[in-house]
Amino acid sequence: MSLVLGAALNPGGLIAWIVIGLVAGWLAGMIMPGKGYGIIGDLILGLIGAFVGGLIVNLVAPDASFGFWGSLVVALIGACILVAILHSVTGRRAV
Predict the structure, then answer these.
(1) What is the separation, in whole angstroms, between the first and last Cα of the chain?
(2) Are 17 and 50 in contact (CB under 8 A)?
(3) How far apart are CA 12 and CA 95, in angstroms?
(4) Can you give the pLDDT at residue 5?
(5) How far apart are CA 81 and CA 92, in angstroms?
(6) Residue 27 in contact with residue 79, Cβ under 8 Å?
(7) Residue 75 burial (C-beta neighbours within 10 Å; 0-12, 13-18, 19+)
(8) Domain boundaries, given as residue ranges, for the chain
(9) Per-residue pLDDT of the chain in tens (95 residues, 90 and over written 9)
(10) pTM of the full predicted structure?
């Protein structure tokens, strides 16, 4: 199952991509410093971060194929990058 965004998304792949994005958002909220953006905000950041991570991986390795765990790592990296960008733009929230 390739969940990197260069692959065609069928309904099952789309559901798996959403689940991975949600998990990545939750993990990014736990890993990144600061209070986070709440459960809904972290989950949305994870979905967008999965997209960002997929774009980055497609630029670096265009025909790469990842399983569940690899896709989760890609989505987590994308979500952490997105959270870091948001922290730099909006300012870091107090703990």
Answers:
(1) 38
(2) yes
(3) 38
(4) 45
(5) 14
(6) yes
(7) buried
(8) 21-90
(9) 444 444 444 445 777 878 888 888 888 888 887 766 777 887 788 888 888 888 888 888 877 777 778 888 888 888 888 888 887 887 655 55
(10) 0.72
